[in-house]
Write a structure and sequence with these properties.
Protein name: Bifunctional chorismate mutase/prephenate dehydratase
GO molecular function, one term: chorismate mutase activity
Domain Prephenate dehydratase: 99-275
Order of helices and strands: HHHEHEHEEHEEEHHEHEHEEEHEEHE
CATH topology of the domain at 278-364: Alpha-Beta Plaits
Largest sheet: 6 strands, mixed
Oligomer: single chain
Structural class: alpha/beta
Catalytic activity: chorismate = prephenate; prephenate + H(+) = 3-phenylpyruvate + CO2 + H2O
Number of helices: 12
Site (Essential for prephenate dehydratase activity): 268
């Protein structure tokens, strides 16, 4: 094909793209105007004494699921869902901007999880500790909070589990985030003379084998977050940090080595906490806390109702109870919604055997 023909073909494609962009712009604007109408209807209900609910987790989950089911490519389901999430986030901001607290500081994986779930058009506030996120939500200072609950390599985040024992909070959603760790250095770092590597304790553990192989004699310093690790490196010449893409971008660091996590499928699960119950979507999970009597066979009695009802139990953790020495509570996640007849039966049977059963919430399964 001659250069002249190639240029003509490219010109025709650009014209087509421009026309498609105009259609996309028009459709997004139409959607935004619909969002404004929704806000008007809901505010009218407020004037009549009803409390409007602007953010509906079950509705967003259903929209994203439908988008992925109808996606024919070439963009991946994950990328298409991300684009629609941002459109929904911006439209929701026209109705009523959400306030979201997350475990900070800026640049953490928890912030990345918050953006993945809510999009960028929310008012997000970093908190110094997990318990502070719970307190902000409980006080009504924010609409929702985002906290880590478990990692596929290192297991449960105990601070989050313990916070559920201290606060009455509803789980409204979950986010699963693939975690990629990078070895980051600053402009002044002497890469051949690194004597200290900063990171969060869990991140150091998730990269243990790689560090043993490449930096066996370098001091590993656990700090409060990966973002804090990245921040420290900016002012030092002999240190490096293990952190993710957001921290690297935020603090202007260079990736000396990429994806150094020991397991390529390394993922962290985050929970969305709030004060509103979420209706069923047909593809839900439920989380409960169960206190059992301290006697032989207690765990067996706890598991029997799940087995006999054919319910998929996805996670079980134990934590020391606040009610007595050497007594424990069980944190359990399972498939189904607490309003489903089968799950109602399960909870009734658990209540007959347990000292106490507390439903933390039913919520849509993570979309991706």
């Amino acid at each position: 094909m001659s250069d002249a023909n190639s240029e003509l073909e490219l010109k025709a494609l650009r014209v087509r793209i421009d026309k498609l962009d105009e259609k996309i712009l028009e459709l997004i604007s139409d959607r935004a105007r619909c969002a404004e109408e929704v806000a008007r209807v809901k505010m009218a209900a407020l004037a009549e004494g009803e409390v409007p609910v602007f953010y509906r987790p079950e509705r967003e989950a259903q929209v994203l699921k439908r988008v992925m089911e109808r996606n024919k490519g070439p963009l991946s389901n994950e990328e298409m869902a991300r684009l629609f999430r941002e459109v929904m986030s911006s439209c929701l901001a026209l109705e009523n901007p959400l306030k979201v607290a997350y475990l900070g500081p800026e640049g953490t994986f928890t912030q990345a999880a918050a953006i993945k779930h809510f999009g960028n058009a929310v008012i997000s506030t970093p908190m110094a500790a997990i318990d502070e996120v719970f307190r902000e939500v409980a006080a009504g200072a924010v609409n929702f909070g985002v906290v880590p609950v478990e990692n596929s390599t290192e297991g449960a985040v105990n601070h989050t589990l313990d916070s559920f024992l201290e606060h009455d909070m509803v789980i409204c959603g979950e986010v699963e985030l693939r975690i990629h760790h990078h070895l980051l250095v600053g402009d002044n770092t002497k890469t051949d003379n690194i004597s200290r590597i900063y990171s969060h304790a869990q991140s150091l553990a998730q990269c243990r084998k790689w560090l043993d192989a490449h930096y066996p004699n370098v001091e590993r310093v656990a700090v409060s977050s990966n973002a804090d690790a990245a921040k420290r490196v900016k002012g030092e010449w002999s240190s490096a940090a293990i952190a993710g893409d957001m921290a690297a971008s935020l603090y202007g660091l260079t990736k000396l080595q990429e994806k150094i996590e020991d397991r390529p499928d390394n993922s962290t699960r985050f929970l969305i906490i709030g004060n509103q119950e979420v209706p069923p979507t047909g593809d839900d999970k439920t989380s409960v806390i169960v206190s059992m009597r301290n006697k032989p066979g207690a765990l067996h009695e706890l598991l029997v109702p799940f087995h006999s009802n054919g319910i998929d139990l996805t996670r079980i953790e134990t934590r020391p109870s606040r009610s007595g020495k050497w007594t424990y509570v069980f944190f359990i996640d399972f498939v189904g919604h607490h309003k489903d007849p089968l799950i109602k039966d399960l909870l009734e049977r658990l209540s007959q055997e347990a000292v106490a059963v507390k439903v933390l919430g039913s919520y849509p399964k993570a979309v991706l």
